[in-house]
Automatic annotation (TrEMBL):
The chain crosses the membrane at residues 26-45. GO terms for molecular function: antioxidant activity; oxidoreductase activity. This is Thioredoxin. Keywords: Cytochrome c-type biogenesis, Disulfide bond, Membrane, Redox-active center, Transmembrane, Transmembrane helix. It comes from the Bacteria. It comes from bacterium (Candidatus Blackallbacteria) CG17_big_fil_post_rev_8_21_14_2_50_48_46. The lineage of its organism: Bacteria, Candidatus Blackallbacteria.
Amino acid sequence: MAASRAKVCQMDGDSSMSQSQNSPQWIKYSLISLALLALGVGFAMKLKQSPPASKTEAPSAPATAESIDAGSLEGKTAPEFKLKRFDGQEVNLANYRGKIVFLNFWATWCDPCKEEMPSMQRLYQKMQGKPFEILAVSLDQGGKLAVDAFMKKNKEAFTFPILNDSEQNTSKKLYHTTGVPETFIIGGDGKVVKHVIGAYEWDSPQILDYFEGLLKKLPPAGNV
């Protein structure tokens, strides 16, 4: 099968390509991990052993730029942030605990970003009514003017929240992004499950299966 490439734009506005497989490897490995986890849980339930002594662990503190090495966010608590939508409404990441969060960093000048956004919208529509949210964070230095111009050309095309990070304090300082698009999948416990660099078809069958697997792992509402 011929290889495809995941497109990425560097922060200077140039478009580059990072190699990937037609079926993204991160999806293959993630689905395998979910399957192994399910097998492990089933095996553990069959073991007749007395339960181990309970341990009291201190809750993990919110991650900050100082406490995270670049490129090591997977498995860590996602850095908390507050950003404003372009309608002025403030969005606080902490308010999405208990949901799967699709955090996407993008820019209007990035062609790969614009190429993947329709599939993000289709994913968003397919996940309606489920504990799932997309937060698309714009890195445009032009801020509202740049995004407004883009949205006028795409009227009613995208209904997920679009946030403003024109100073790139969240993208670069907290999430250590080096280009766009970059996507962070955050679990219901607030930890980064997967960091994906490059544009993808986010409503492909494999990726939909991946998100459904994450949703099944969420605790019942109110038990987060």
